[in-house]
Amino acid sequence: MFGRNWKDRVEAFVEYPEEEDAPFRTEEKNGGLPARRRIMHVDMDAFFAALEEVKNPHLAGKPLVVGGAPDGRGVVSTASYATRKYGIHSGMSARDALRLCPQAVFVGAELQQYTYVSAELISIYHRFSPRVEATSVDEAFLDVTGCAHLYGSEEDLGWALKKEIRDRLSLTCSVGIAPTKVMAKVASSVFKPDGLTVLDEEGIKRVVYPLAVDKLYGVGPATLKILEEMGIKTIGDLASFPIERLKQRFGKCGEALGVIARGEEDSPVLIEAELPLDKSMGHETTLPHDTADPDYQKATLHYLCDKVARRMRRHNYEGRTVTLKLRWSDFTTITRAITFSQHTDDTLHLYKIVLGLWTAAARESTKKVRLLGVSVSHLREKSIDPQLGLFETSVGRRHRPTDELLDTIRNKYGESVIQRAYSHLGNE
Amino acid sequence: MYQDLDDPIEVIAMFADHQLRPLRFKWRGNVHRITRVTGSWKKPEGESIVRFFAVVDEQTNVFQLTYNERLTDWILSKVWVE
Questions:
Q1: Considering only CA atoms, which of A365, A339, A350, A359 is closest in space to residue A420?
Q2: Distance (Å, rounded) from C-alpha A400 to C-alpha A176?
Q3: Among B82, B69, B1, which residue's Cα sits nearest to residue A52?
Q4: pLDDT by residue (tens digit) across A368-403?
């Protein structure tokens, strides 16, 4: 449903297709003249927390944390703005959040609702532009090139969208409009919450260039460290830095970084049908308590393999690289992967592969295990006529009747109605 | 905090404008008149739909009701306790 990894997009826009292949031909819509691109980024304000506040009037004005419970291994999904001033942020442990703000109210995440409301948001976005790319449950890009005249100005367009969201869902958002996706995302972060920032090329130099360079989408901690060593502290510094030196240091991505800092990247807003295939599918789980019990770990892996394989079959995928993730009680984390020539979407076949990886990995430490994860990559859509190759074995297809039967039951009655017996231990 | 429950309840609901809206419900012998529906969403469960409603009653108690279309029954799934 959502857009793909930033690194993929950086590489994608450097190899941007020729104009005639572009999915959205602005020239035709502008009487043959190239239209100035205008991209909108919408970022819902403390989305999960805001929805919980709308649902429950008792939460109004209180410091609110949405996520896991502070008495367990819970993690903060979102903190309301009233809570963030205490230093609470997404990803931190709920226990630490409680320590920082003892008066905070903790509520569990209602993910089904958030997903449902996210779909409603997308339908609102489509009233403003036919090209909408949701990059997460609470953020989206809209291509609003040539749309401003329908509302009078880009500011009026932005206010109209914010009003629609507020009237229909009682939620606020922060909006940025700029010539590129990256600059639109920076613009939406300039004034939060409930902000609206419209930038042209001059506005980018005035408002964006003085900002710290890690405000740029895609500049993470590792890249930031290197940029700082090179004397690049602001987005303006990066925009004016010699391209050749960036290429020397970062390769092809170095050129891309310079281009995006100058507001010149032209990566398009992709609609659902244009998004690239998923690169991997996986599930991981933090165990209720750290354990060295091999049977419990194996049952958990079985449960995870069932979930991953089921999801692959639902999307008509099969994959040939299997990765195990294992985190021990001291937070040491390893991944072990293996790639086959054959693709698979079979639960038990996947489990056997993962079991082999786990058996080897588990020997590396006697510590208790805290987290287990399984993912499959090198995905492809299943062929319509899946005949076995001359030298392929049938092991990947032997259990198909069981998988198909379970899928049929779950499609009709829901995911939780039936489980493999061994998985049950891992689903407690 | 919310207390998770799984209590069957009796509900009077309105079907209008292509929407389902609970109006009141009886829980543990007490009737609660719903003054506001503060949130509603749904999720697929197999071929059926399960609908959720966040509601506030006359005493500003907050509840979450769940309606299972396949089973045509209502459950009180959460109540807000201070």
A1: A350
A2: 49
A3: B1
A4: 999 999 999 999 888 755 554 444 444 455 567 778
Beta-bridge mates of residue B42: B51
Give CA–CA dist A140/A130, Å, rounded: 13
Say how far apart CA A44 and CA A56 lie, in whole Å: 19
Maximum Cα–Cα distance across chain A: 70
The angle subtended at Cα B43 by Cα B37 and Cα B45, nearest 5°, is 135
Question: Residues for chain B: how many in total?
Answer: 82
Question: Do A321 and A220 belong to one domain?
Answer: no
Please give, rounded to a whole number of angstroms, the shortest distance from the CA of B70 to a CA of chain A. 9
Q: C-alpha distances in angstroms, A359 versus A183, A352, A354, A365, A419?
A: 47, 11, 9, 11, 24
A364 is known as an active-site residue:
no
Percent of chain A with pLDDT over 90: 60
DSSP letter (8 states) at residue A387: P
State the number of CA atoms in the 13 A half-sphere of A372 facing the CB: 29
- On whether both A287 and A403 belong to a single domain, the answer is yes
Dist CA A21 CA A231 (whole Å):
39
Same domain, A284 and A257: no
Please report which confidence band the pLDDT of residue A35 belongs to, taking 50, 70 and 90 as the band edges: low
Q: Within this chain, do residues A309 and A252 fall inside the same structural domain, yes or no? A: no
Considering only the C-alpha atoms of chain B, give the largest distance between any 2 of them, rounded to a whole number of Å.
37
Main-chain dihedrals φ then ψ at residue B18, nearest 5 degrees: 65, 25
In sequence order, what are the beta bridge partners of A63? none
Inside any domain, residue A12: yes
Give the model confidence (pLDDT) of A105-133 as tens digits: 999 999 989 999 999 999 999 999 999 99
Q: Which domain holds residue A385?
A: 280-425
**Same domain, yes or no: A249 and A286:** no
Residue burial A273-300, b: 16+ Cβ < 10 Å; e: rest: eeeeeeeebbbbbbbeebeeeeebbbbb
Q: B71 to chain A, minimum CA–CA distance in Å?
A: 11
Contact: A106, B1; criterion CB under 8 Å: yes
The pTM is what? 0.80
> Is B82 in Cβ contact with A51 (below 8 Å)?
no
Which of the following is catalytic: A53, A133, A139, A265?
Answer: A139
